[in-house]
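Anyone able to model this chain together with magnesium ion?
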Amino acid sequence: MKNHLFSSDEEQNGGRRSAYSWWRTADEFDENGHFKIDVSEFSNLTPRYKILREMERLAFIATDGLDDLRHKLLSYRAGDFWLPIGGLKKEDMDIPPVVTILLAGLTASGKSSFTNLMYSVLGRSGLIPFAQTSGESSNYTTMFLEEHNVLRSPRSGLCVYDTRGLDKDEMEEGLDEVSTWMSVGVRHNQPCHRPGDGDKSQLSDELTNSRYLRRKVNCVMVVADLSQIHRSFKCGDLNSMEALRDLFHLSAVKNSNENPILILTHGDKLNAEERINGRLRICEYLGIPETSGAYDIPCMTEQGIMAEESDPVTAFSLTEAVYRALLQSDRTHLPKKKFKDWLIFFCKWIMWCIACLFVILANFFSKFGHHNKKLKM
Ligand SMILES: Nc1nc2c(ncn2[C@@H]2O[C@H](COP(=O)(O)OP(=O)(O)OP(=O)(O)O)[C@@H](O)[C@H]2O)c(=O)[nH]1
Ligand SMILES: [Mg+2]
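re: yes, here you go
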């Protein structure tokens, strides 16, 4: 039985096959771009069908839904998506003025390109690059934390942090750095020091500006190169996949125990089969749902293509990913600390200091005692 789910837009447009519907070349579709089987039947929904159905959903709402969703982001103020829970009121919650989304990932996965695409789609900036990316002529890598107001609005309730990519061969240092960002917070222009940077780190210190606000990270998006994922699984060299898994499952990046959002870039370099299989395999490898856990968002703004005009599915996916990040972020706010909490914290701190003092004294006198014994003998 043929399924016509999500196909009314096509019919309204006289069955026009859009260039951006790359997934419709898969075997599961007939020549009219309809599913060959009934995908509303639960038993038919294999993981592969789930991805295809998800792509159809995005295509179905992309054109009409984009402005609506973008408007929600434009009018968003931090805490808007917070829902009362545990008998607390919104005023009792510690909600920052701006929600912070952190982009993390391996080197050259496309974090800066994704940031530029956000400016292009959400901030309607055209193709002006705001974050520097590496290109054919340069090996540029982001060396500082960069705060981006991707909506380009002074009243924006969200900001995005572009970060330095992690080196798969030096993951330990990279993960430590990510954990520090998560626990201490992030600040615009903060240098990303790694052991082995040499002289570069001295230079970067001069640019640090401690007057920028330190922000608590509310949600993490892990950006990953889908073409590299495909290559890794194909040749069985899973080094970079293990690195990605370590980052994805780093306990520090799981705010309120929620997984980061996975952004898959570079899909445009693959054919439909490779693209679907790559997504399936990485989601399985990371143990996340293949539809709600990941977004396939090729970032091709540098090649002079406006995602919104040429590829509304990508533009909508990006907007939905940010929307999801905000929903997730607004679940992470904690209750404000009250006087009683500060008093308990202060008492604990005093007790801890006294305990340390006694440990030092005990050590000192035990050494002193041994020394005296030796003298007597
Ligand atoms: N074809 C294609 N190229 C992409 C895509 N995303 C990024 N690129 C290219 O990949 C290269 C690396 O992208 P960047 O955005 O600099 O990557 P990054 O993650 O910021 O890299 P670091 O700052 O070094 O961590 C650049 O040449 C981009 O143009 C994509 O989705 N498709
Ligand atoms: Mg970068």
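The CA atoms of residues 16 and 164 lie 42 Å apart.
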